């Protein structure tokens, strides 16, 4: 049997009919229900990671099959709604010995990892995808597909809670008004911090205010360095733009913490003297804890659904990713009917 899949070829997204993937022992075949388009997917089309294959790493799906497990384990998984962690470690491929990072419990940093829809592993812009069972998380019945499709980026926002002792901070600035920036602001607000979100799009800032988050509008250019006077002990840079880094450095107070969330294709000019002179702690931050994200959705403390701009059918993925790049558009979803 073959399935519909979209693949990156020559920096364009093209429809292809591919065989439904075969399973390794301990892996699951997941029928995608909803997939989210992320800025990383757009960067992939611009050459990020030189990826060739099926992009897409934000999804909620239903387990169709599991290979190489007991009858009881298969019964536990098949037919259940799931979200999935995107980093596949060397142990899941049967490599022995496992790498030093996996031995230390750092599977997301595995030296031989693949990453769903990003590095050497076909992703969610397809009818089906595969992941190790150990990567899957059950979606509670009270969490809709439209909320569950945000679990992966929401987990990335929750990573901040694992990296920092959030009790050390009373307030924070989040730079950027895109999807990830808004999720970060929601998570930090739910953790008890006073948040100010800085962005350049009035419509996106209005979305944040509806979620109870204070906002300030900036222009998103070099002039912001002179215009923005506020300083914060904690600054999260999530603009997705090289220019955001300079502003984030200026806004971080001496011996403060600057946490970096942006990923984009290409180089960013960086002046290191503010980091040295102000003795700033710089923290890189990527994927995060799914359990925390699911708990926030289940409790209702975070509701990401107002961020959804439009939902397309999977067959219209090319139109969807073009729409996702339009000014003012937030989360665009693909539905596999």
- Averaged pLDDT, please? 95
Determine the fraction of residues in helical runs and give it as a percent range. 25-40%
* General form: globular
Strand residues, percent: 25-35%
Unreliable stretches (pLDDT < 50, length at least 5) are none
Helix/strand-derived category reads: alpha/beta
Number of strands: 17
Distance between the termini: 17 Å
Biggest sheet layout = 7 strands, mixed
Number of helices: 12
Order of helices and strands: EEEHEHEEHEEEHHEHEHEHEHEHEHEHE
Radius of gyration: 20 Å
Please write out the topology.
Layout: E1 2-9, E2 12-19, E3 27-37, H1 39-45, E4 58-66, H2 71-77, E5 81-84, E6 87-88, H3 100-103, E7 114-115, E8 128-132, E9 136-138, H4 145-148, H5 151-163, E10 171-175, H6 179-190, E11 194-199, H7 202-210, E12 214-217, H8 224-227, E13 232-237, H9 242-251, E14 252-260, H10 273-277, E15 281-284, H11 290-299, E16 308-313, H12 317-324, E17 331-335
Parallel strand pairs: 10-11, 10-13, 11-12, 13-14, 14-15, 16-17
Antiparallel strand pairs: 1-2, 3-4, 3-8, 3-17, 4-5, 5-9, 6-7
Helix pairs in contact: 5-6, 5-11
């Amino acid at each position: 049997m073959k399935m519909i899949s979209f693949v990156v070829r020559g920096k364009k997204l093209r429809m292809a009919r591919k065989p439904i993937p075969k399973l390794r022992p301990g892996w699951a075949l997941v029928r995608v229900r909803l997939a989210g388009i992320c800025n990383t997917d757009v960067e992939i089309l611009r050459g990020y990671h030189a990826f060739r294959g099926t992009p897409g790493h934000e999804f909620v799906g239903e387990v169709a099959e599991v290979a190489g497990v007991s009858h009881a384990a298969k019964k536990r998984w098949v037919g259940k709604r799931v979200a999935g962690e995107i980093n596949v470690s060397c142990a899941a491929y049967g490599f022995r010995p496992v790498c030093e990072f996996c031995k230390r419990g750092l599977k997301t940093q595995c030296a031989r990892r693949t990453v769903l829809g990003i590095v050497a592993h076909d992703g969610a812009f397809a009818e089906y995808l595969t992941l190790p069972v150990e990567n899957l998380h059950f979606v509670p019945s009270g969490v809709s597909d439209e909320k569950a499709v945000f679990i992966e980026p929401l987990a990335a926002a929750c990573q901040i809670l694992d990296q920092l002792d959030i009790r050390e901070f009373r307030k924070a600035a989040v730079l950027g008004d895109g999807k990830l920036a808004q999720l970060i602001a929601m998570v930090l607000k739910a953790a008890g911090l006073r948040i100010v979100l800085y962005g350049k799009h009035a419509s996106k800032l209005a979305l944040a205010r509806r979620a109870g988050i204070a906002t300030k509008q900036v222009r998103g250019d070099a002039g912001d360095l002179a215009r923005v006077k506020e300083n914060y002990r904690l600054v999260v840079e999530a603009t997705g733009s090289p220019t955001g880094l300079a502003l984030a450095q200026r806004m971080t107070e001496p011996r403060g913490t600057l946490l970096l969330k942006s990923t984009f294709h290409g180089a960013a000019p960086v002046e290191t003297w503010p980091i040295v002179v102000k003795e700033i702690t710089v923290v890189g931050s990527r994927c995060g804890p799914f359990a925390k994200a699911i708990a926030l959705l289940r409790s209702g403390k975070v509701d990401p659904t107002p961020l959804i701009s439009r939902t397309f059918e999977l067959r219209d993925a090319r139109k969807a990713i073009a729409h996702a790049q339009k000014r003012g558009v937030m989360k665009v979803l693909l539905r596999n009917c």
